[in-house]
């Protein structure tokens, strides 16, 4: 099978014989792992197309279960992301999170568009990179069908007095359910300073409408902490290398 598809390079690994293995989120086939013998020397458009963050066109040959990239062309390298270390780490986190979130060979066209939009916006952004990152994560979870429930209590269904977030139960809980005897075992967080409305805002708005949004530090840290616990518990995604680097900044 021979095909051409647009794609975003999530990861590149050098292997023996000057070859490379790429993990590419393709528009047509979803996430695939593909080998290539294309050299990365120089600054030609094919070489740039092998690098992480790059949006490109890829000529792919598939034999059995193995993909091989025969040719490629850069459409957008997002090169300037690498010129700011904090921006680079946030973008890397988003890419690594996306790779873990996606199953192999399962097309996800809406998420593909979202990731492309995230990289374009991150490249242009000049501050508060983590605000854009958590917004992207919330919307990616929503598109993958893994988002927490935010409209009513996940335990009793009430829409009133929603004051907690239960990681294990997968969403918002009311004051009564928050104080049940086993609440400590269920890892429940207090939803302070209208945090539920902030999360809903991030989830319900198109990413493009969040271009200039900058969350205050307390709100951002709360959402990051909740997201980390939720993703680890429900998706078994943890120990991201980019997250460790961010923690040492």
Give a structural overview.
37% of the residues lie in helices and 24% in strands. The chain contains 8 helices and 8 strands, in the order E-E-E-H-E-E-H-H-H-E-E-H-E-H-H-H. The strands form 2 sheets. It has a 5-stranded mixed β-barrel. It is elongated and about 60 Å long. The model has no long low-confidence stretch (mean pLDDT 89).
List keywords for this structure.
elongated; alpha+beta; 249 residues; 3-stranded antiparallel β-sheet; OB fold (Dihydrolipoamide Acetyltransferase, E2P); 37% helix
Q: Tell me, what's the shape?
A: elongated
- The rounded Rg comes to 20 Å
**CATH architecture group name of the largest domain:** Up-down Bundle
Give the class-level CATH name of the largest domain: Mainly Alpha
Count of domains = 2
Give the overall average pLDDT: 89
The chain-level structural class is alpha+beta
Task: Give the strand tally.
Answer: 8
Contiguous runs where pLDDT drops below 50 for at least 5 residues: none
Taken in chain order, the helices and strands follow as EEEHEEHHHEEHEHHH
User: Number of helical runs?
Assistant: 8
The major pleated sheet works out as: 5 strands, mixed, barrel
């Amino acid at each position: 099978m021979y095909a051409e598809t647009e794609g975003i390079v999530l990861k590149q690994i050098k292997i023996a014989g000057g070859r490379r293995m790429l993990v590419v989120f393709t528009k047509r086939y979803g996430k695939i792992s593909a080998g290539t013998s294309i050299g990365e020397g120089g600054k030609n458009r094919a070489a740039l197309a092998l690098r992480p963050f790059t949006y490109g066109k890829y000529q792919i040959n598939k034999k059995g279960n193995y993909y091989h990239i025969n040719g490629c062309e850069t459409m957008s390298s997002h090169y300037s992301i690498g010129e700011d270390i904090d921006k680079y780490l946030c973008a890397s986190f988003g890419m690594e999170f996306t790779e873990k979130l996606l199953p192999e060979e399962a097309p996800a066209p809406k998420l593909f568009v979202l990731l492309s939009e995230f990289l374009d916006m991150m490249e242009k952004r000049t501050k508060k990179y983590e605000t854009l990152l958590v917004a992207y994560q919330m919307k990616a979870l929503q598109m993958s069908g893994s988002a927490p429930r935010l409209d009513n209590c996940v335990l009793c269904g009430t829409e009133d007095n929603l004051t907690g977030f239960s990681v294990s139960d997968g969403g918002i809980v009311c004051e009564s359910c928050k104080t049940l005897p086993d609440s400590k075992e269920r890892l429940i967080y207090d939803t302070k300073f209208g945090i539920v409305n902030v999360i809903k805002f991030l989830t319900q708005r198109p990413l493009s409408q969040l271009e200039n949004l900058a969350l205050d530090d307390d709100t951002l840290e709360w959402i990051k902490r909740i997201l980390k616990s939720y993703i680890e518990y429900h998706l078994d995604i943890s120990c991201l290398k980019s997250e460790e680097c961010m923690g040492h900044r």
